[in-house]
Amino acid sequence: MNTFVAAERALRSAAPHRLVDAVREVLCSDYAAKAVDLFMADYGLTVLRCVCSPPDRPESLPVHGSPAGRAFGAQEPFTELGGDGGVRVHLPVTVRGDRLGVLTVTMPSAEQAEEYLAELAEVAQVLAHEIVVAERDTDLYLQARREDRLTLAAEMQWQLLPGRSSARAEYALGAQLEPAYAIFGDNYDWCATADRLMLYVTNGMGEGVEAALLTSLGINALRNARRAGISIADQACLADQAIHAHYRGRAHLSVLLLDLDLVTGRLRVVDAGSPRMLRLRGRTVTRVDLEAQLPLGMFEETDYIAQEVRVEPGDRMVFVSDGVYGVAGPGGERYGDRALARAITSTSLLPAAEVPGAVLRELSGHRGSPVPDDDALVVCLDWFGRPRPD
């Protein structure tokens, strides 16, 4: 039987908590690997944490400045020589653009590493798919992502998210929240079909668990309306009614709703609150002026209207919460005044998945403190356009 087929079968038949053991056994027996380790990216995207770390292996590796981190950032296999004469191959563990971590395989020689590199990369992709499925039945991989303890509000928020990145031929998405281990109100959601991409960027009022509960109600109300097949304007109306029915106007949810037609590139937007949209076209960053409408839940029945925004292939759209653009530096200048545009321009060569983290690092420098006073959310959407059929 083909060695790759054997590896795929071993992963698909393994118990959810034994995926690392299964991939290690098959790679050592069929590919002559000397060691196999899985590292998961933590919630803050600062370290790669080892799953079931053996005693002779590090528990975590930095995302920036390590060979494994280089493979994670570039999304390409990276090979390094080991001190014992072996070769370590670091392989991205990614599913449909969502970067989960890195599979590190130690091979006896550079020749064997090169011979099996393509198949090892495919095994890492299969592993990524199996991890996503396995997380329904085990906490092992979620626990491995934790460099610190999550607050209860953060636990609730991370469980709402669809992922931190996604990619297709037409677009690429990336998102990140700060502080990763103590978020409470900001959130995002996306959903794609054959011809449409819908994206929500939310900023819930309040703090702690109360803010997380409000956002959870809002996101699930929007999902319920979206799955009924109605427009984003009507989705906003129904979610507005659901939030008002529960809170009676005492709490509201700011949200930016977007509906991108993947065939034509037509973008429809409902601006119901504080999240902002900026567009990078060429080397020019502009804030997209939208018709401001009421946040969800303020009044019993609010009508919402979608407006069209012109986008072109090659455009990068960046969405930020008020915890990003409203942050003041030591001198009093808000990040959204000029520094945000500079950060977006300086990250123009990065893939969409890396832009949010880079912008948030720039925000930390602008703030002058590593600890934020409010949630900060950055979402990046690159629009490539639909490829023409050959």
UniProtKB/TrEMBL annotation:
Superkingdom of source: Bacteria
The keyword Hydrolase is annotated on this UniProt entry: yes
Coiled-coil residues: none
One GO MF term attached to the UniProt entry: phosphatase activity
The keyword Glycosyltransferase appears for this protein: no
InterPro entries associated with the record: Bact_Sigma-Reg, PPM-type-like_dom_sf, PPM-type_phosphatase-like_dom
Domain PPM-type phosphatase residues, every copy: 166-383
Keywords: Hydrolase
Protein name per its UniProtKB record: Phosphatase
